Amino acid sequence: MKNSKQSPPEEKFLRGEDKKLKGWKQLPIGAILDAGTAKNYKTGDWRNIRPIWNKEKCIQCLRCWIYCPDSSIIIKDGKVDGIDLDHCKGCGICAAECPVKPVKAITMVPEK
Length: 112
Description:
Blueprint lengths: L8 H6 L34 E5 L9 H5 L5 E4 L2 E5 L9 H5 L8 E5 L2
Antiparallel strand pairs: 1-4, 2-3
């Protein structure tokens, strides 16, 4: 038995039943999420390399904090205090931006 209920136009388009292109005003509204929801989920569990922070070598320039796309550098009292591995995805930007030489304060190592 076929359902006699009519589908909304956006469902017909998504299923390919309606081939006409829509203008931007006719597109269905997408999901809008509240800001800051990533902190509620541990998103760093799929990385294959992770940063190791060496407190003794760190000059507290905060470049790692500035460039980290995941806000995984932990800051306390204006200084680096560690790395949030629950949210770090292992991109290595923090290690690349660290200016300490010859051995950087943040190095990347394989995930165990």
